[in-house]
Amino acid sequence: MPTHGYGASDSRMLGWTKDQRPLVAKIVMNHIRKICGSSPLIVTDKHPSYPMKIRKNLPWVSHMTGEELKEETGEPKPLYWINHACAMLRHDVSRLKRRALTFSQKVSCLQKHLYIHIAWTNGYRLF
User: Fold this and answer.
1) Which pTM was predicted?
2) Is the residue at 109 inside a domain?
3) Could you tell me the CA-to-CA distances from 62 to 35, 44, 71, 99, 114 in Å, in that order?
4) Which one, of 65, 62, 61, 33, lies nearest residue 48 by Cα?
5) How many domains, in total, are found in the chain?
């Protein structure tokens, strides 16, 4: 996904972010095609490109946004819990803050930091 905002010019110059969304969308659509039943319902956020891609690749599938589903069923948005989890990670893990200068140079170090965060969040004794 292309970068925007603070530090975007640096990341584009270094080639860190390449837009792979079209390729990944095809892969996801192929996975959905393999596992979906006879009358599936796909619930997404309100991104304008999703309805077109779903109609093009999966014409038999029903599509709703989270807002439409909430109006029909009265339940919270389906993406609420993952958004909450990501916000908590950004808040608690310094390497994931949006405007931080602390970032992991090695993926293994980020994984170790996330393991510590998961242990702390779930109440394991660390020391």
Assistant:
1) 0.46
2) no
3) 15, 11, 16, 39, 36
4) 65
5) 1
